[in-house]
Amino acid sequence: MKRAKVFVLILFFSCHLLGQKADSIIAKNIVFIEALGVGGYGSINYERIVPTKTQVNFGIRAGLSVMRIRDFNYKFNPDIVIPFAVNFIYGTKHRAEIGIGQSLTNMVQANAESGEAERNTSFHATASIGYRYQKQTGGLYIRVVYSPIYENYNRLRHWGGLSLGFAF
Q: What is this structure's pTM?
């Protein structure tokens, strides 16, 4: 009877530890910089991977980009771009990606009547399709995408992006 209790305790704790170990080795966070892409000429981004038990995962992404630092009067007044998206990712190490999202832009422009600087905020629909290299356990992250932008929902701009970062 004593051996049975010890066996049950060992079995219980070993299963619990294995469950924790297998879940903790999946890299769920990615920090990366993107040249071009939906953030404009360059952006800093964070993506959170929602792992599943299949090869299809989901990523929720947000970023920040600053376009021009000074406005037309040469005053510090940066243009800001904030991209956010949902990505559908397929694969384990070499992965395919399809994503949809929005980019919020806050740009400085001259007022037509007064000539003073004023901010205009707008949304743009974005999409992405491409390739990413990302190990399950983390480390180097490389991504190449075609990412068209539907500016102000009335003009399609063909765009692409190259990302480099770290998954952990």
A: 0.79
How wide is the angle at C-alpha 118 spanned by C-alphas 116 and 119, nearest 5°?
165
H or E element, residue 106? strand 94-110
Which 8-state DSSP code applies to residue 49? E
Give the sign of the dihedral formed by CA 84, CA 90, CA 91, CA 96: negative
139: left (phi over 0), alpha (psi -120 to 50) or beta: left
Q: Looking at the DSSP assignment, which residues form a beta bridge with residue 161?
A: 36, 145
User: What distance in Å separates the CA atoms of residue 48 and residue 38, rounded to the nearest whole number?
Assistant: 17
pLDDT digits (tens, 9 = 90+) for 99-158: 999 999 999 988 888 888 889 999 999 999 999 999 989 999 999 999 999 999 999 999
**Degrees to nearest 5, angle at CA 10 with 9 and 16:** 90
pLDDT of 1 strictly over 80: no
Q: Is 86 helix (H, G, I), strand (E, B) or coil?
A: strand
The length of the chain is: 168
